[in-house]
Design a protein that fits this description.
Blueprint (H helix, E strand, L loop, with lengths): L1 H10 L4 H4 L6 H30 L2 H25 L11 H29 L1 H63 L11 H54 L4 H14 L1 H27 L4 H90 L1
Helix pairs in contact: 1-3, 3-4, 3-5, 3-9, 4-5, 5-9, 6-7, 6-8, 8-9
Amino acid sequence: MYLINHFMWWCAGANIEILKRYPSDHAKYFGMGLTIFLTSLMAFGAGGYAFHTVFEDDQKAILFGMFWGLVIFNLDRYIVSTTGRGDGTPKITFSEAITAFPRLMMAILLGFIISTPLELRIFQSEIEIEISEEKSRNLEKNTEKLNVNDQKIGELKNDIENLNLEIAEQRKLYNTYRDDYIKEGDGSGGSGKVGIGYRYQDKLERFNQFRSEFETFKKEREFEIEDKRNKILAISNNKEQTKQTLDETYGKADKLLSKIQALHRITERDQVAFWIKWLVTILFIFIEVSPVLFKMMSESGAYEDWLYSYKNQQKEAARVLEAKAKIEADYEIEITKIKNQERTDQELKLNREILNQIYESQLKVAKSQLQNWEQTEVNKAEVNKAEVKKTV
């Protein structure tokens, strides 16, 4: 029982080590896990039955059923484990419904998917009868078509036979006219005189005229015969194709899609079957959505409160870390600004000193140039004065 409890808790997506501390929530999560586990078992049966219906392979059907059961199990476990505790009260509020809406839609879809193969199994005998009747109706319709085709082929064969008889009758006349003029010429018939007389010429002319008419008549009838033979060939090909289509259709009549269509026809004309089918579908939908609904409707227990508190602590810790990281980043930015400012001040101070030195150097150069200029001008004045004295 110990291992079974742990397995069912795990199926419900609970943290086993934490859940052990809160016995009041053990039964609730055991029920959730059992519902999910049983749903996956039903999915295994439904998927295996559907796969066997399509491929008729027991081994592959079992493998696919196991795979499909695991898929449904994982989806159900995800839906339940990711559904929060809501407001912690037995009432389903509007905000809770909006939050759980996507998960509920997914659960409803899974309910439809799981219920369909099982509905086919429940109505198997009725579906087989419906498929058999549908086969009979289709066979009767297509048998009438095949009989019509056989009738057309018989009519065309009779037409060909009549045309051949017409040609044969005309050929007899052809042979008669030919023998008449030949016997008239050799004396073995007609007038009994050997030689080419007026009787011979009349019979030869009659034969030549009929021969031309016979050749035209023969070509026309042979063309009609060929056309009717082509029609017979086309009808025969269509008949064979129809038979092949019937064989393929009847060979697939017991496949999954045919069974679903048969069940649809049964529920359309039989209200009892209609309501039974929908009750089964609603039952599976309810089984799928029940863990989510029960989780939303149940009061929050000690385990949910611990999870809620733990999540809030993690969120608060994340916010603290984020704020700390922001403060450290702002501090680094301020330090960088201060360092940049100090570096700028030092550069400005250095630039001022350099400018002062340049100014003093330029001033010294200017004073030196001014003194040289004054000395030059004084010397020029003394030279001019001496020259003036000499002139006087």
